[in-house]
Design brief:
11-stranded parallel beta sheet, about 625 residues, mainly beta, Jelly Rolls, 59 strands, 33-stranded mixed beta sheet
Length: about 625
């Protein structure tokens, strides 16, 4: 087993005693080239052009350390680097194939980095570089134009790739993302000789499962390839500020890239446990841009933060999981979850055909489209939704703290909002309505309210454990001086049906709430009332809390059929701003209660009392 150290730059293929050989002199072996089991070091300041095919090596190089620069030949041909160890890139080292994104590796060339074992690119030492610029296809994936049966070898497709770089012998992934799938259906197949036609792709072997017309065919081949073969390892570990546009694959227990920092990832990443992963206990992934395709992985993007994903994540069991911050304007499809866990994820693209579009986590901001999922949102908290949820069984299923603005629910089968205790909606189009708002699936404080309901300006609707509240502008139902009244339709004798408004009271300020409540029959068992509630001590959370102020209708027995005045007043005597709820409640198994309130805030100043009125 020999050790080779470069004495100058040059072509890898030039062997001593050629004086232009990078291996000439300096104690290197006199004859031949680095072979199986040998160790190689590229010295700092030397540039070596890799121009050989090492497929014939028995196991591969035992070591390769790049302290200088290793580039790949651009002369037409097939080049193959075989490793039985990591490629270590030193602090001043660079491994490069292709020139730039604008000048990619010529399609007449093919370069493969093959790791024969649990190895990969490693030890970047913060400043070492791996820059790979493959030739990208014009069309990275296409859709089936019709459903196919199990066993089919001919795929009808909606887009012709004739003339693109799709080629016979390339691997493609056929991903069914029709929707409501428990696990991703992504099958890898090889294009048969003569198998590329304007309206079809023909495979060497047939499909295991039938595929819907929503399926995608993804090209999993590029003219730069990184192949990892065994073990739970990262094919690329801890690079910084690198560009990696290549076909990257390994085993279903291996990872594509781990602990990257400010990298641009293109090409295609496939057949891995985790396509992009920050690693257990390692540096969190920061500032990565992903504009390629991640396909057929267990987890597409796993953990990390500050991602921008402009490409596609298809056919992964879980697509985006545990990412802290991300901006995703691409296509996510065919996974158990499109977005799972994580926080502060901005999704502006499309999530298609997942069991759950967004699952768990907090602060997912979705302004794009979630379609053909069992649930657009499952659990999670404090999500923001301003996009479209369509053709799902549920829109929002469980969770809490959703803020829905100018969103659209359309073709929802069961419920737009199901069993979710706290949702604020504004200017949102409904499809299947709200369900399980009045059951044990939600707590007593559950409150869902919709302003400009169904995109009708001024219309209001709310759901609480005790029933539904809607706005009413019928003149005959309005108290004097009010343009709108709210009708509470009671549904439960043990739970409050309420409407509430949140108000901030500055220190030293008094709030006076005036209003009217009307009942048509006997509500003596629990008189309808107006309350001022401390947000941090809500009686609906605990019976140990009491309202800051409360007043009930004077005659709850139904003998007064007109509007009865109510008033509640509270002064914030603390030195801090206080958040309070102005709440009107009723509680009965059935019956309607009408109410309307206004409030004033009174500021004591040296000039007297300043009064501001709100309604």
């Amino acid at each position: 087993m020999a050790t080779w150290v470069t004495t100058q730059g040059g072509l890898w293929s030039k062997a001593p005693p050629d004086a232009t050989s990078p291996w000439y002199g300096g104690g290197n072996p006199i004859l031949g080239l680095p072979g199986s089991g040998d160790s190689v070091t590229i010295t700092a300041g030397h540039t070596v052009t890799f121009d050989v095919n090492q497929t014939v090596l028995l196991v591969g190089l035992a070591a390769l350390t790049v302290n200088g620069t290793l580039v790949t030949s651009t002369t037409a041909g097939t080049y193959y680097l075989k490793m039985a160890a990591n490629i270590i890139i030193g602090a001043a080292g660079e491994v490069r194939t292709g020139t730039s994104a604008l000048v990619p590796y010529p399609q007449t060339c093919s370069m493969t980095y093959y790791f024969n074992g649990a190895y990969g690119f490693s030890n970047f030492n913060t400043t070492g570089k791996l820059n790979l610029f493959c030739t990208e296809p014009t069309i990275k994936h296409i859709k089936l134009s019709a459903a196919t049966i199990a066993g089919a070898t001919v795929l009808p497709v909606d887009t012709s790739v004739v003339g693109d770089i799709w080629a016979v012998g390339n691997t493609v992934y056929v991903c069914d993302i029709a929707g409501n799938t428990v696990t991703a259906d992504a099958e890898a197949r090889v294009i048969k000789a003569g198998g590329i036609a304007a309206g079809s792709i023909t495979l060497v072997t047939g499909l295991t499962n039938e595929k819907s017309s929503e399926s995608y065919v993804v090209l999993a081949a590029r003219n730069i390839s990184i192949l990892g073969t065994t073990g739970v390892t990262s094919v690329i570990n801890a690079p910084s500020n690198c560009v990696i546009n290549a076909a990257v694959t390994g085993t279903t227990s291996g990872y594509g890239i781990t602990s990257s920092l400010s990298c641009s990832l293109g090409g295609v990443w496939f057949g891995l446990s985790r396509g992009v992963y920050n690693g257990a206990g390692s540096t969190i992934v920061l500032g990565n841009t992903i504009n390629g395709v991640i396909v057929g992985c267990t987890n597409g993007v796993y953990q990390g933060s500050n991602y921008t994903i402009t490409g596609s994540v298809l056919g992964c069991t879980n697509c985006i999981i545990g990412v802290v911050t991300a901006d995703i304007p691409g296509l996510v499809g065919a996974g158990y979850s499109g977005l799972q866990f994580g926080a502060n994820i901005n999704m502006t693209g499309t999530i298609l055909g997942c069991t759950y579009g967004s699952q768990y986590g907090a602060g997912h901001n979705v302004s794009g489209t979630i379609t053909k999922c069992t649930a657009a949102f499952y659990a999670g908290s404090d999500h923001i939704f301003s996009g479209t949820a369509s053709n799902c069984t549920f829109g929002i299923y469980y969770g809490s703290g959703f803020n829905v603005t100018s969103a659209t629910f359309t073709s929802i089968l069961t419920a737009d909002i199901y069993g979710t205790p706290r949702v604020r909606l504004t200017n949102t189009t409904f499809s299947a309505g709200v369900s399980q708002y009045n059951t044990l699936k939600v707590p007593t404080w559950s409150y869902i309210h919709s302003y400009d309901h169904n995109r009708i300006v001024g219309t209001f609707q709310a759901w609480s454990r005790g029933g539904i509240t809607v706005s009413d502008v019928t003149p005959a139902n309005l108290p004097v001086g009010y343009a709108v009244v709210y009708k509470h339709t009671c549904e439960d004798a043990t739970m409050q049906n309420f409407r509430q408004v949140s108000v901030s009271i500055p220190p030293g300020v008094t709030i006076i709430v005036d209003g009217y409540i009307r009942i048509a029959d006997d509500h003596s068992a629990w008189a309808p009332r107006l309350e001022i509630i401390n947000c941090t001590a809500d009686p609906l959370f605990s019976l140990s809390y009491t309202p800051l102020a409360t007043t009930s209708v004077a005659q709850p027995n139904g003998t007064v059929v007109g509007f009865q005045p109510v008033q509640a007043k509270y002064t914030n005597e603390s030195s801090l701003v206080m958040e309070v709820l102005l709440r009107v409640s009723a509680k009965r198994a059935s019956g309607d209660v009408y109410e309307a309130i206004t409030w004033t805030t009174r500021y004591a100043t040296t000039q007297g009392i300043i009064v501001t009125r709100y309604n």
